[in-house]
Amino acid sequence: MKKGGLLLVLLWLLFTYIFSFGCTIFTTAEGDLVLVGNNEDWKNPNTKVWFKPAEEGKYGRVYFGFDNFFPQGGVNDQGLCFDWTATQLLEVENSADKPVYEGNLIEKVMEECATVDEALALLDQFSKKFFERAQLMIVDKTGDAAIVEGDIIHRKEGKYQILTNFYQSQYEPDSFPCTRYKIADRMLSENENISIDLFRKILSAVHQEGDWGGTQYSNIYDLNAGLIYLYHFHNFEDGMLIEIDTELAKGENFYDIPMLFPDNFAYISYKETVPIPIAKVLYEIIHEQGIKDALKEYNRLKEEESEKYDFGEWIINGLGYKLLYTDKRIDDAIEIFKLNVKEYPDAYNTYDSLGEAFMVKGNKKKAVKYYRESLDLNPNNTNAVKMLEKLES
């Protein structure tokens, strides 16, 4: 996988597999009232809200997400709001030759942009390869909105816009496949007057539940009033109000969302069933004791406490990428990717990532070896093809 865009996706997955089974985002405007609603649907119960006050050259921001503090959604003090949904793979080609932004591009957008037009102009300067499994909705306080689907931009037309977990470019409007989309569409079309109560009812109507988790938190942004209505674990009776300017004035801070609400038996019962991502444990040991001790502990935990931890392929892979690029611990990253190859020998992506790590280290021979093994497992792995062309040219 390439550095930058796909790295961003993998870091997003780190520790919490943030790519959601479903999310529902929608916005509409009536005069000065501009509202954005969001259900964050996933299985990680460790949800957070954090605040970044304005500083020179950067607007103040409020972010929502999970315990890796990767912004899943948020708003800045200019009334620019965003949120993501996950999707199936759809290759992005048109911007592939543009530079890759070295960092979190959406954070740069929130730091520097006040309108949808400004956000789209900034995004257009860089490669959007990291949109191959994700979409973004952006809304500003004028009521302007857009869905960023890779290089395809869907500007808001009419009174409202909705985003769920499918590519709208791949379907005719009358054949959209998502029931949540259809419910939100019907409720917005049938109600001429918008309100917080209407948005709360829509979020309730499209929320999800199940053994995998469901709607962990929901929020409604009132962009001109500078307010956020927050709900926890699909309980739409007990909400709390966040005044954006008031919270930002307190300085940099964060809250555990569950701690802001009364005890919820459904949430407590669910949380007790969720396995801990093994990457959390390994990351701490690597930094405190070293990679050898981390690998020993991995083997012990898998043998003795396997039911308590999640040893998933993407969990381990995400840890490797964090070590490789964020922490610059290349040798440690290689050992983690080797572990993933050993644990998942039939997964082409594990070889692809190990090849990338050796490429970063400067070992072209081993990089070629693992990219070739990845391609043997998946002849449609276009990234391996491109990397081999680059390495062997």
Report, as a whole number of angstroms, the end-to-end distance. 18 Å
The CATH topology of the largest domain comes to Penicillin V Acylase, Chain A
- Count of distinct structural domains: 2
Strand proportion, as a percent range, falls in 15-25%
Main β-sheet, in a few words?
Answer: 8 strands, antiparallel
CATH architecture of the largest domain: 4-Layer Sandwich
Description:
The chain is an alpha+beta fold. It folds into two domains: 267 residues, Penicillin V Acylase, Chain A; 117 residues, Serine Threonine Protein Phosphatase 5, Tetratricopeptide repeat (Alpha Horseshoe). Helix content is 39%, strand content 24%. The chain contains 14 helices and 17 strands. Strand 5 and strand 6 form a beta hairpin. Helix 8 packs parallel to helix 10, helix 10 runs antiparallel to helix 11 and helix 10 runs parallel beside helix 12.
Précis, in short:
This protein is α+β, with helices and mostly antiparallel strands and 393 residues long. Helices cover 39% and strands 24% of the residues.
Identify the notable features of this structure and list them briefly:
Serine Threonine Protein Phosphatase 5, Tetratricopeptide repeat, 393 residues, 14 helices, 17 strands, disordered N terminus, 2 domains, seven-stranded antiparallel β-sheet, eight-stranded antiparallel β-sheet, alpha+beta, Penicillin V Acylase, Chain A, 39% helix, single chain
Spell out the blueprint of helices and strands.
Elements: H1 5-13, E1 22-30, E2 33-41, E3 47-52, E4 61-66, E5 71-76, E6 81-86, H2 105-112, H3 116-123, E7 134-139, E8 145-149, E9 152-155, E10 160-163, H4 179-190, H5 196-206, E11 209-210, E12 213-222, E13 227-232, E14 235-243, H6 244-249, E15 253-256, H7 265-271, E16 276-277, H8 278-288, H9 291-304, E17 309-310, H10 313-326, H11 330-343, H12 348-361, H13 364-377, H14 382-392
Parallel strand pairs: 16-17
Antiparallel strand pairs: 1-2, 1-10, 2-12, 3-4, 3-15, 4-5, 5-6, 6-7, 7-8, 8-9, 11-12, 12-13, 13-14
Helix pairs in contact: 1-10, 2-3, 4-5, 8-9, 8-10, 10-11, 10-12, 11-12, 12-13, 13-14
